[in-house]
């Protein structure tokens, strides 16, 4: 009942999509979501090509289904970005998702190589530009989203505006944690849902246990938008995180140019005010790192298996849609 045309393009059974969360969405999580019939993006922002190769190999070891890689051109040094794109093309990665400032050149290169290109957007104008550049699927991100937030509008305001303008399948992202949320956006005409925060609190996510636990404990009003976590990204980028000592201003001015090491990952320093979130592979002062979470966090109350979370959301969405009549026609 949830199956929409976008499922044919992405090669999945149900239109529930794991967001390409940097650091968090690795092969274990992509494999579990794919196994449940959904679609998964590896979050590979700024990751070395060797890790992309390794993670792609691991996904292919557990599924024959399609999957994707998420990249952020604006937050990646040009040489590394070129190498990442070359690797995705050479590895025949079926789908690539791009986010933040649109790079029409990157879209064109990927399309010419036969890769399906998905762009996450935060406004109608961005949606139009992405489609003109060649995006075959749009993800509309509402301001409720966890992590970097591109747009200013709530999802249920922005989604109908983009749907009215778009000529390609549209997915919705931001604050979606339950089947009823998925039913709501599909009733409006979205072909599926992109899940971030709901998938952090799973056994398979690469987030550190501290992050998973903070998500489980957080209430509905536990998040805030801030630009304090800025090292590694273009300036003035806002992220939605759980409130902590950084968002409360206890570490001073984030923009005074100091570099304070608060953790490490395989010899790489993790700086205070950087965009790094606590991962399994890190040690350090997690409390002062970015605990990304969307506004749906209050309805995530346990760490469970990713397969179970996807299946539960899908079953609840089907039940919620049963009484609502046919879904709007879509491309
Ligand atoms: C921990 C975390 C990391 C994220 N990293 C990325 C990323 O690297 N690339 C990207 O396109 N989006 C990223 N996002 C944003 C997601 O694509 C998506 O918009 C968001 O998770 C949807 O909102 P939700 O978290 O409320 O489900 C991230 C989100 C989270 C929570």
Give the C-level CATH assignment of the largest domain. Alpha Beta
Structural category: alpha/beta
- Arrangement of strands in the largest sheet: 1-2-3-4-5-6-8-9
CATH architecture of the largest domain: Alpha-Beta Barrel
Taking all Cα atoms into account, the compactness measure Rg is 18 Å
What is the overall pLDDT average? 97
Number of helices: 11
Structure in words:
The chain is an alpha/beta fold. The chain has 11 helices and 14 strands. It has an 8-stranded parallel β-barrel with strand order 1-2-3-4-5-6-8-9, surrounded by 7 helices. Strands 7-11-10 form a 3-stranded antiparallel β-sheet, with no helix packed on it. Strand 2 (39-43), helix 3 and strand 3 (68-71) form a beta-alpha-beta unit. It is globular and about 55 Å long. The model has no long low-confidence stretch (mean pLDDT 97). Bound molecules: flavin mononucleotide (FMN). Flavin mononucleotide (FMN) is lined by residues 19-22, 24, 43, 45, 70, 72, 99, 120, 141, 144-148, 173-176, 194-198, 200, 277, 292, 294, 296. Flavin mononucleotide (FMN) binds next to strand 7, strand 9 and helix 9.
List keywords for this structure.
2 domains, binds flavin mononucleotide, 18% strand, alpha/beta, TIM Barrel, eight-stranded parallel beta barrel, three-stranded antiparallel β-sheet, 331 residues, 14 strands, globular
